[in-house]
Amino acid sequence: MTENDPSGQNAEQARQAGAQPDATGLGGHATPHGGAQQAHSSEQQYNPWSPQAQTQTQQAPPPEQPAPGPYTQGHHIPGQQPPYTQPGPSVYTVPQQRQASKSTSGKLLAGVAAIALVVGGVAGGTVGFLTADSSGGGSVNALDAPKPAQQTGNLPAGSVESVAQKLSPSVVELQVSGRSGAGEGSGFVLSTDGYVLTNNHVVEVAAAGGQIQAVFQDGKKGTATVVGRDPTTDIAVVKVSGVSGLTPVELGRSDDLRVGQPVVAIGSPFELAGTVTSGIVSALNRPVSAGGGGDQTTVMSAVQTDAAINPGNSGGPLANMAGQVIGINSAIYSPKSSQGQGGESGGNVGIGFAIPIDQARRTADDIINTGQATQTFIGARVQTAPTGGAQLGEISPGSPAEKAGLKSGDVVTKLDDRTIPNADALVAEIRTRAPNDKVKFTLGGDKVVEVTLGGQPVTPN
């Protein structure tokens, strides 16, 4: 077991459990190349108004050419795994996970669709940056405010327009560069003194001496520095200096979301800062594993949405119709059939994933207060059981799992009232909880064991 793994697994075992190699070579999340990776020139993108494009559109196919069929190369064939790729230029493909074999131990996840972290392309654009409050007043921090009241209405109030007007001034484009590449993503303001919440994969390339510039909606610009980051949850906090008058977002809650509930996403897809899209909550508690390896594989119990999310949306807010942030847009599902030329992956196909804000605010609070995130763990290796559920492997001495009486070979089928279909679901559920939380594991069919979760600091690679 490795100390930072909530389940105690390592990278080698995760690979042995069935992770497929990266189809495009662009990397993933913690193994990937972060949010700001290899830059792609916008000149390589298709221009529908170019003379060549105009000529192409005027050349109709021969009359005898049959209409295109419903399938394209790479379409899914029943009984086979569909090919998955990363969305868009400068996005990082996450290896597809396969179901764990019976003989493999230490598997982090099986049977989960390959997920692509959505960071943008070449750094650029002309919007504003943000920085610390120079008014001389005290800091106002959204993380200190209590959760809003539980939703009770049958229909959400507000409109997409009102949400955009409320949130857009607080959304920032982050242009990132480092020794290994450059790119851009999104973030949103937590406090008047310049704290901004974003994804780890957006800023990790700049964590070792790189540069981050923040571009704000009203044209303000500032330099940002990394306060702390957590690859295991794909959350990071940066601090912007040189800009005053920042407007913090209002944080909502993610424990009362409903499938079908309208939501709005705001960010900088393909360097188009301030882009607003809308959709619904498509699913909840979706176990998603995105990139990385071993202890620092990103695993989240995600909010799934069909709001359009593309490269550059990473780190931006997903909001309810009251304009409250309920998630951080982080990953998309992008099959290989939507790949562009040159191995570049396609964009939105209507399946995006956001980190629930309840989990994000706890991690962000740890980072701001201590400079370091705290990871929740049980101290046991885990793999997907052949008949379903998460099978425990080696138990670390003195760990929460050992103290609770859990044994190697135990199969966890539920955590509290949440069904656990595989190893990834167990890891995701553990990471959504806080250290010292007491949870109930259902083993097999009926045995219930109470476990007090542990906590340990995360040291990013």
Automatic annotation (TrEMBL):
Pfam families: PDZ_2, Trypsin_2
GO molecular function: serine-type endopeptidase activity
Keywords for this protein: Hydrolase, Membrane, Protease, Transmembrane, Transmembrane helix
InterPro entries xrefs: Chloro_Bact_Ser_Proteases (IPR051201), PDZ (IPR001478), PDZ_sf (IPR036034), Peptidase_S1_PA (IPR009003), Peptidase_S1_PA_chymotrypsin (IPR043504), Peptidase_S1C (IPR001940)
Compositionally skewed regions (Polar residues) per UniProt: 1-13, 38-50
Domain of life assignment: Bacteria
Pro residues compositional bias, start-end: 60-69
Nucleus keyword on record: no
PDZ domain ranges (all copies): 367-447
Entries under SMART domains matching the protein: PDZ
Compositionally skewed regions (Low complexity) per UniProt: 70-79
UniProt-annotated stretches for the region Disordered: 1-99
Transmembrane stretches, start-end: 108-130
One BP annotation, GO: proteolysis
Family listed: Belongs to the peptidase S1C family.
Full protein name: Serine protease
